[in-house]
Amino acid sequence: MKIIPKAEIISRLNKIYDHIPSFECKHCQQCSNPIMWFKAEQININDYLQKHHLCFRTLSEEEFQQNQMKCPYLQNNRCAIYQVRPIVCRLQGVIPELTCPFNETVLLSKEQYHLIVSEFNLLNRDICGIEEYFGTRKEICKQVVLKTQKLIKPVPF
Ligand code: SF4
User: Fold this and answer.
1) For 83-131, how does the pLDDT look when each residue is reduced to its tens digit (9 = 90+)?
2) Model pTM?
3) Band of the pLDDT at 155, cuts 50, 70, 90?
4) What is the pLDDT of residue 144?
5) Cβ distance 55 to 49 under 8 Å?
6) Any idea what the Cα angle at residue 52 is, between residues 48 and 55, rounded to 5°?
7) Separation of alpha carbons 21 and 1, rounded Å
8) Domain region containing 16
């Protein structure tokens, strides 16, 4: 197996993210729930956390309830890892499956979305991470895995 350097993984990931349009976030926090991400994103997030002297944050189910189901990366109503936020956060408001009350215009076409997801899965497959899950909930539950998998469908190889 070819070892892909961290810088190359991050560069490929950023190129994928570049294809996802962004719109002005109103920081309403309505989309903040337990979220899940994949190996390439974990590498990217870890790199950012280390460089910015931040801690990796996960909550148990109970802690999530106490935190009113808000993401542990929310600080003063802002995402502390916004620059490296995972694909599920980036897709919020730009695909029909992840709606945003402040952006009713779907910005990605089905074709663009499928292309992004294919590239994303290819990257995670290249680093043997297609079945590795990380996220804001300590114990990533089946429900979150299934919901995310439905959005980021693994491509058949
Ligand atoms: S990681 Fe950031 S963008 Fe994603 S849900 Fe948490 S606070 Fe929001």
Assistant:
1) 999 999 999 989 988 888 888 777 899 999 999 999 999 999 999 988 8
2) 0.90
3) low
4) 86
5) yes
6) 80
7) 34
8) 6-148
- Nearest of 116, 107, 130 to residue 16 by alpha carbon: 116
Answer whether residue 154 is part of any domain.
Answer: no
C-alpha distances out from residue 27 to 21, 55, 89, 93, 137, Å: 17, 22, 12, 12, 21
pLDDT, the chain, mean: 90
Ligand 1 neighbourhood includes 79 CB (under 6 angstroms)? yes
Closest to 87 measured CA to CA, from 43, 144, 127, 35: 35
Structure tokens of 24?
Answer: 């002005």
Position 38 in a domain: yes
- Tell me which residue has its CA closest to atom 5 in ligand 1: 32
pLDDT at 157 exceeding the cut of 50: no
Q: With DSSP H G I counted as helix, E B as strand and the rest as coil, what are the percentages for the chain, rounded to 5?
A: 40, 10, 50
Whether 155 is covered by a domain: the verdict is: no
Report yes or no on 34 lying in a domain: yes
Please choose from 28, 68, 76, 85 the residue to mutate so as to test ligand 1's pocket, defined by most ligand atoms within 8 A of CB: 85
Count: domains in the chain:
1
